[in-house]
């Protein structure tokens, strides 16, 4: 009897272990499938949006007419050269609206690239903060990691920010890693008219930076206090793995493209 009971218990334990392994295998398979679906959704959405951009060509009016037919919260189009960052920028009533919502208004873990709700929706502030999820396979703001490499940072400095009524060339200033609660980088409402503090912060904390460019912007910022045209910077932020709540941050100067320059580019 005892031997039979032990044999029964052994069989029961084996069956339980097999069941646990089966459930774990099923869960792992589902997790892998689900992860693939998330990344496929990002690819599909970006491909569709890039088609809209391509069809509009150089016609900003058409681009934003088409984009706002998709979502009236679209504010701009951001591109960083030699990266996969080429997305529309939306802005919601708060910083949670597009955290897990795509440009089409659908639930999506990848969310959208979005301007901080405290920033001017027309990108007229001196300091504009833009958020995006860090994702593998270079999706969303995953490519901000590239700028941590000194050689890449030095050799890839350009990009563009397109709005309905104007366009900006982007020239990167600095790449840094800061805490998510950093009181300078993540308070864009403090620096609308004076960007001296974030520029000095970036220079002191940056992994890589252009000191000549920062000095020029500081001088331009000072001159703006007596009536000169103020400088503008675009700040891109995403999650980072250096420590808990770390953020990778890239700063870029916004240089407004004049109409005559746009005509020359078209020619």
Blueprint of the fold:
Blueprint (H helix, E strand, L loop, with lengths): L1 H55 L3 H11 L3 E7 L5 E5 L23 E2 L11 E5 L18 H6 L2 E5 L4 E13 L16 H10 L2 E2 L1 H14 L8 E8 L5 E11 L2 H8 L1
Parallel strand pairs: 4-8
Antiparallel strand pairs: 1-2, 1-5, 3-4, 5-6, 6-7, 6-9, 8-9
Low-confidence stretches: 26-35
Mean pLDDT: 87
**Beta strands, count:** 9
Radius of gyration: 24 Å
Alpha-carbon distance between the termini? 94 Å
Written as H for each helix and E for each strand, in order along the chain, the element string is: HHEEEEHEEHEHEEH
Helix content: 25-40%
Please give a structural write-up.
With 267 residues, this protein is α+β, with helices and mostly antiparallel strands. The protein is 39% helix and 22% strand. It is built from six helices and nine strands; from the N terminus they run H-H-E-E-E-E-H-E-E-H-E-H-E-E-H. It has helices spanning 2-56, 60-70, 150-155, 196-205, 211-224, 259-266; strands at residues 74-80, 86-90, 114-115, 127-131, 158-162, 167-179, 208-209, 233-240, 246-256. Strands 1, 2, 3, 4, 5, 6, 7, 8 and 9 form a nine-stranded mixed beta sheet that branches. Helix 1 packs antiparallel against helix 2. The longest helix is centred in the first third of the chain and has 55 residues, at 2-56. Residues 26-35 have low confidence and may be disordered.
